[in-house]
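Researcher: Go.
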Amino acid sequence: MAEIGCLKDGCFQNLQVEGNVMFDKGLTHKTVLSVDGVQTDLSSSRIITNSRSHNIDLSAEKDARDKVIIVNHAMENGKYIKLPESTAANIGKHIRVIFAFRVLGAFAVGFESTTIIGSATLIGAYGTYIRATTQGGTESNPFVHPNYKSIRFADETNKRGGESGSVLDFYYVDIGRVVYRGNLITLDSIESIDGHFSESAVVHVGS
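Model: Structure:
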């Protein structure tokens, strides 16, 4: 039986909470409710978890507070996490995406206009592989593809890496630019993560 009220100094099992949970030191945890559609009311949350496979849209967020997104449900084909653009107001921001469940289909994390630079390391059955946004560049022109807008995962063998335990870090370092570091895990027998970076923007295309 569910009851509404306040709890303090207790030990509880199977406690279900909707809304805000206040921890010590002012940390706010807000659970994304099990509803379809793009979530837009997440700016006050420091930690976000999803309870089903729906899009998470943080593009309206303007402040520089750090955020952790825990993918607590397998993301299905066509879903995305849209991050806030890098502006003068949020330089220094750090967003971490943690996969507690594997990606099941084409899935994207990224921006509409902000450029991603950085690298990803994939640990798989055949060894460890690295992909960087500067790959193939020269000393005078290291940024061969300076217009990467998103990180992509899909069922195709060249875009895997979203197994449980994968972690994505986005550091807001300049207006219109973030530094990305991906630590990826796969159970598939692949030897490449080509296609992990994409010039395609993350835009709202459905729930």
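Model: Residues 102 and 163 are 4 Å apart (CA to CA).
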